[in-house]
Write a structure and sequence with these properties.
Number of strands: 0
Order of helices and strands: HHHHHHHHHH
Shape: elongated
Strand content: under 5%
Largest sheet: none
């Protein structure tokens, strides 16, 4: 398919999905199977890591395809024609699959989202044997600051998202909040930790810790 054909097809998708009645219904019925195939591939790709399988994967794929179709319909005016429409649309369903699988994974975990096990954080640092003591000392200082300087809400959000790696969307669902509200709580928590002037670890150790979101700025 050449560029002119792609442009023509893109306009057709936007026009028909933006229409009403039978025209829109036909376009949705045409797009949904494509979104579902993409969703199933993405769910299968993530399944082994999250230890999910069977009917729940197909349920997630169907839900993601349906939700993505609604999102795409609402955001037709943001499509710029810089790629195929179906490529652009697929990004929404891939994002939805990831969000839904992360939520499902954390809802079925035995580990509480506010579980305080700082060794989990220390074990994620990619430090050399010579930096392990420095990293452990830094984590100990951060844990003390989290305990004594943060509010209960800030401590809960910090422990869940930074230490236990709970996705913000999943935590927002669990707490009946929104991702933006939790990002604000986390921003304020990290600001307080920086104000404590925690001793900065050596440069290489700090780089390793940045990925976990605890190295002071």
């Amino acid at each position: 398919m050449d560029d002119l054909q792609i442009a023509h097809e893109n306009r057709r998708w936007v026009r028909e999905l933006g229409a009403t009645g039978s025209v829109r219904e036909a376009a949705c019925e045409e797009l949904y199977p494509l979104l579902h195939r993409v969703a199933r591939r993405e769910a299968a790709r993530r399944a082994s890591f999250l230890r999910m399988h069977g009917p729940e994967l197909d349920d997630i794929a169907h839900q993601a395809a349906a939700d993505a179709l609604m999102t795409i319909s609402r955001r037709l005016d943001t499509f710029r024609g810089e790629s195929r429409f179906t490529t652009w649309a697929s990004k929404f369903v891939i994002f939805d699959v990831g969000t839904k699988m992360n939520r499902h994974h954390w809802r079925h975990r035995d580990l509480p989202y506010d579980h305080e096990d700082w060794s989990r954080l220390a074990s994620r640092f990619e430090v050399t044997p010579g930096q392990e003591v420095e990293a452990a000392e830094f984590v100990e200082k951060v844990s003390a600051a989290v305990k004594h300087c943060l509010t209960d809400r800030q401590r809960l959000v910090f422990m869940a998202t930074v230490v236990n790696e709970v996705p913000v969307d999943a935590l927002a669902d669990e707490l009946g909040s929104t991702r933006n509200a939790l990002y604000k709580v986390l921003f304020d928590a990290r600001k307080k930790l920086r104000a404590e002037r925690l001793c900065r670890p050596p440069a290489r150790t700090a780089v390793a810790m940045m990925g976990a979101g605890v190295a002071p700025g």
